[in-house]
Every structure is written in C-alpha cells, then in structure tokens.
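Problem: given the chain below (307 residues), write out its structure.
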Amino acid sequence: MTSEVKQALGYDVLGALQYDNGIFYIDYASVVQHFRSIYINWNPELFRHRCVFHLSCPLEDKPHHGSRHLARNPQYHLVVHTTERPKDYLWILLSRHTVDGGYMGNDYTTVHLYKDENNGKRVISLSDRIHEGSYTSNPHYLVRLDLDRTTCASPKYLLAVDQLEWTSTLNYTLSIFCTAPFEMNEIPRYFAYQVVRDGEWTPHTAAGSWRGADDSSGPPFSANPHFRLRFRSSSPSTAQRPILLLETREALYVGLRVASDLNGGRIKAVKKTMQGSGAYRPGYAYIELNDILPDVLYSVAVSTFDP
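Solution.
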C-alpha cells in the first residue's frame, strides 16, 4: 500500500499492528483469489420503518409430484401508507438460515412480488408477478422498489417465498425496510379443514379435455376420474373460500370442472359445469369455489388436455 493510499484511507499501520479491530485492507487481485463473494452493508438509518419475520417452511408443504405453484408457500400482505413525498423506497431482504457457510447445493430460493388486487387473498399461480424473483443459492436475496407516489398513494403487495427444488425445510428471516410507514402480515397458510385424495389416470380413464358431443374419436369426457364433494356448511363470506387443487407431474396439462346439479353423477356436458379451472396448466389446476351450498353433492372431474 502506497503512502498516498494510506493517507487517503486514514490507515495507521503501527496502530493496526497493536490493535486488531477486524478492519484490514487488501488489493483487488487478492480479493479475487481468496474470496468467493462480497457483502456490502448499507446505512440502516436510511430506513426509519422496518420489521423482521423469523419463520420456517416445512418440507411437507412442498408441491406434490413436482408441480410448480404457491398454494402452500409462505405469503405476506404488505401495505405501504401514504406520505407527502413524491417517492419512497422499499427493500425486501430474504436471508436463509445456513450452517455450512451459506451455499446449500440445490436449495435455490427467492421472493416473488405481486400487486394485491384481492384484499390479501393467497395467490397460487406463478403468473402475473410484478417482480419475478431469481432463484439463487446465495443465502441472501434483495428486492429493491422505488415507489412513485404520484401514481399510487398507498400501494399494496403480496410477497411469496419460494424454493426451486424442495429438498429440505427452509428456515429464513424476511426483513422489510421502507422510508414510509407500512403494515405487513403473514397470510394464513392452512385451511381449517383439508382433505387429500390420491388418484390416477389409466388408459381407460384418461379421456382428455371436452371435445364436443359429436366427437367419437376417444372415450367421452365423463370417463375421466370423478370425485363427489359435500360441504356441511355454507361458504364463508371471508377472503378464504374453499379451494380445489389438483397436483400432478409438470409434463401433464390438467384441468378441473365442478358441477352442482348432477347429485354426484358424472359430468357429461360442459353446460352443466358450475365452475372450471380455466386453461389447462402444466402440473396443477385449481378452482376457488364460490356460493357453496350445504348438503349439496358436487361432482368434481379431473382431466388431462390430451387423452
């Protein structure tokens, strides 16, 4: 280190030899040779408002059959309050708890960000993200947002923590830093009642999607696997309505249909369907049920796009 650099940095060589405070200087070539990553701290006084969540995402909450969705992922509702400033700043930091130096093989994690348009209701699909998180094996992942108050005075967001390959329980800290006051709450991860049923498509029951009554090229839609569903009470008026979730391997495009006027019989015509899951999706499909009636026997059909 030259005398000019020592003077510019205020580096006292003799003082450093007698008192080790953990601060040292190193040339860039040595940094590249001996270190794998560098973490740069920011001034915490920049953000007057902050909160920290220390939580866990157990391995048993992972999507079944390798499907890709967020039905059981940790999710949070974030509301940034109004200020008189034209711009504010929001930072979201995900820190994974590690015991081996920070790198966890195939445990790639991230944070996805959605614009909240449904009063804090849980999201399931990975589509429509305003920030598509990059999956990384680094123990830290940072999202930085510039909030333009001229376009939205009090923005609302949904945050979803996700893993690319669910190989172990995820223990993590989620830290929120903002220049404006905000509120953040975890969205309930579980329903009060849950029922899981396993099934399969066979050469005789994989009838595919609806092809029309005049199409006799394969088994009719009614040959697809069906389930009967009955609720003991009416659908709640709260934000958490019953959800039907179909999970399978990602190579299959699948869909759900629900009918209420067949007394538990098989669905033979689309016009009798109360609700559908929309376009066929790879690996999963879901329906959020509305206007549930007690003691009505519903018919639920699960189908692949191709027979």
